[in-house]
Structure formats: C-alpha cells, structure tokens
TrEMBL record:
UniProt organism field: Collinsella ihumii
Domain (ABC transporter) ranges: 4-231
Record's keyword terms, sorted: ATP-binding, Nucleotide-binding, Transport
A Pfam family hit: ABC_tran
GO molecular function terms attached to this record: ATP binding
Repeat recorded as keyword: no
UniProt key word tRNA-binding: no
Protein name: ABC transporter ATP-binding protein
InterPro entries registered for this protein in UniProt: AAA+_ATPase, ABC_transporter-like_ATP-bd, ABC_transporter-like_CS, ABC_transporter_ATP-bind, P-loop_NTPase
Length: 250
C-alpha cells in the first residue's frame, strides 16, 4: 500500500496554462478517480504523476518520497492496452519481471500464479489477438500489477469496453484492489464509472484553450463499501452523489 501526494502542480504549454495549482492526496489502499472533460488536462496530469514529464512547479510524492520527474516508480497503464502482438499472454504479462532481471521461467511462474485471480485461467499461451477486449485489459492490468503492487495509475482503463464487460470489470477490479490492498488513481471522463469505482473523486474543471486553466474544483467522497458497489448505481445515494459531481463539473 502506498499513499500518493500531488502538491501544487502547474503546467503550461507554449504560453497556455493547462494545469493550475493541482493538489490531491490518494490515501493508501484507496481508489481515487480523476474526473474531467475532454481536453482539460487529465493526460497532462497523468504524465506528471507517472514521472514521464516534469511540471513547471509542484511535486509528486509516493509515501513521502519525492518522485517528481522520476519514471518507473509506480505502475501505469495507458488507455490502449498495448500488449505486444508477437508475444504470448504470459510473456507479455511477465515482461516487467524479466526487465527487472528475474529469470524468464521464474517470471512466468510468478505471473501464472496470478492468472486465476485476474480471470486469465487458460490463456497463458494464447496470443493477444485471440483474446476478447476484456481479457486483454485484464492481462494489461496484471502486467501493471506485476510492475508495482503498491500503486497503480490507470488512464481510462475500461473506456474501450462495452457496457456489460465494463460492469464486470468494475466489480472485478474492486475485488482485486481490495484483496491486494492496492492504491489506485484512475483517470476517466465517465461520471458513472467514477461513482462506481472511487473512494474519492477529484473533479477537474477548466478549458485551457479558452484561457481557463484547469483546477480541481471539488472532491466527492463515496463512502459506499466496495462489496455494495454492484447495486450502488440503483440507489438514491448514487444519484445524490451524481448530482453533486455534475454540479462541480458545471
Ligand atoms: N505537448 C503538448 N504541447 C502543447 N499543448 C499540449 C501538449 N499536451 C497537451 N496539450 C494541451 O493541453 C490541454 C490538455 O490536454 P490533455 O490531453 O492533457 O487533456 P485530457 O483531459 O487528457 O483530454 P482527453 O480526455 O480528450 O484525452 C489541451 O488543450 C492540449 O491541447
């Protein structure tokens, strides 16, 4: 488990202020969602948190350790699953361990031990093209998980999936995160998805190209226990949170 702290992050591109003084904390073991409209700067913040780019000011800390601009400190998964088509599922998934110097056979064994939990039983020797979108997403999530069990940063991980698969994946992801005590920050522009997954939702608002830099305008805390999330969307409480979030989004 690891706590993430983003402190006073600002980013401008070519004189356009995109992010203005963004601060947020994801407590250890929580799932947080970063919610905002298209073009507001979610990917820009994702890159800063992942250490792939440096902010103009501000910092990123993992468990109190400054990781600003330092890639490879936490697991991240991009919107597209990006499995390598010429590698089998087990070789794709065990890649982070191999890159870290674990012998290939041992890396495969470690990965395969988690295949059942990640809903991938029987797929080890299949090719990515032979799997459904949901399965590929699970494989990509397992690969991220093997990179770092403590903290996962996910950019719209379920956006390419149909509604049924998405609902299944939400339930499954909550279960896996609970079992492993994973802390996660999930980027999404889908309000319902944020409400179904998050312990807290950070709502971003802004239109940088129109001269309005993006800020975090509010945090919505969702106290619904994970075990009750599957039916949460049918409750009055869900609608009340949704109203609050939509009001924040404007
Ligand atoms: N490298 C760059 N150079 C110049 N401008 C950039 C760069 N990267 C992003 N921007 C601008 O920053 C703003 C935020 O972009 P970003 O991709 O972070 O938004 P987003 O919220 O992730 O959007 P979407 O949900 O559509 O992916 C946009 O106005 C974009 O044009």
């Amino acid at each position: 488990m690891a706590q993430l702290e983003v402190g006073h992050v600002s980013v401008a591109f070519d004189g356009v202020q995109v992010l203005d003084d963004i601060s947020l904390t994801v407590p250890a073991g929580h799932i947080a969602c970063l919610l905002g409209p298209s073009g507001c700067g979610k990917t820009t913040l994702f890159h800063v948190v992942a250490g792939l780019s440096l902010p103009d000011s501000g910092s990123v800390e993992l468990d109190g350790r400054d990781i600003t601009g330092a890639p490879g400190q936490l697991a991240y998964m991009l919107q597209k699953d990006l499995l390598l088509p010429e590698k089998t599922i087990v070789d794709n998934v065990s890649l982070p361990l191999v890159l870290r110097g674990v012998p290939r056979a041992q890396a495969r064994e470690q990965a395969i031990a988690l295949f059942d939990t990640f809903g991938l039983a029987g797929t080890a020797d299949r090719w990515p093209s032979e799997l459904s979108g949901g399965m590929r997403q699970r494989a990509a999530l397992l690969r991220s998980y093997l990179f770092s069990q403590d903290f996962m940063l996910l950019d719209e991980p379920f956006s390419a999936l149909d509604a049924f698969t998405k609902a299944d994946m939400h339930a499954w992801f909550l279960d896996v995160a609970e079992r492993f005590g994973t802390t996660a920050l999930v980027v999404t522009h889908d309000v319902d998805e944020a409400l179904e997954l998050a312990d807290e939702i950070f709502v971003m608002r802004g239109a940088p190209q129109a001269g309005r830099p993006t800020r975090i305008v509010g945090t919505e805390r969702i106290p619904c226990p994970r075990a009750e999330r599957a039916s949460f969307a049918l409750t009055e409480e869900f609608l009340e949170h949704k109203r609050q979030v939509l009001a924040l989004l404007g």
